[in-house]
Amino acid sequence: MGITALATEQLGDLVYVELPRIGAALARGASCAVVESTKAASDVYAPVSGEVVAANADLGEHPERVNEAPYATGWLFKIKLSEPKELGELLAPADYAKSAGV
């Protein structure tokens, strides 16, 4: 799980990331992490339900990695799905871009 490149552009340079604890149960749509930039702090919402099985501890020292590589080293956490059907309800990249006005 992470945030999109579009979101990193809108947020600006990240200076702090607060991740969920490993073992936390997340409900789809619930606030589960916080990213703070030079502009503002923003909640990150779980797009699916499940248990946090890993968190990117490297971001504590290097939050800028989210900006640099949101789809690679800038990942936030990993979830073991509890409701696999929720994957089918996520937006495809083109639909996300359209909903974001890109």
Number of helices: 3
Strand order of the largest sheet: 1-3-4
Give the strand content. Answer: 25-35%
Q: Are there runs of 5+ residues with pLDDT below 50, and where?
A: none
The CATH class is Mainly Beta
CATH architecture: Beta Barrel
Order of helices and strands: HEEEEEHEH
| Percent helix range | 10-25%
In the CATH hierarchy, what is the superfamily? RNA polymerase II/Efflux pump adaptor protein, barrel-sandwich hybrid domain
Secondary-structure-based class equals: alpha+beta
The main pleated sheet reads as: 3 strands, antiparallel
What is the total number of structural domains?
A: 1
End-to-end separation: 21 Å
Overall mean pLDDT stands at: 93
Shape: globular
Please state the CA-atom Rg, rounded to the nearest Å. 13 Å
**Record field, number of beta strands:** 6
Characterise the protein shown here.
With 102 residues, the chain is α+β, with helices and mostly antiparallel strands. It is 19% helix and 29% strand. The chain is built from three helices and six strands; from the N terminus they run αβββββαβα. The strands form two sheets. A three-stranded antiparallel beta sheet has the order 1-3-4. Strands 2-5-6 form a three-stranded antiparallel beta sheet, with no helix packed on it. A hairpin with a 3-residue loop joins strand 3 (31-37) and strand 4. The two termini are 21 Å apart.
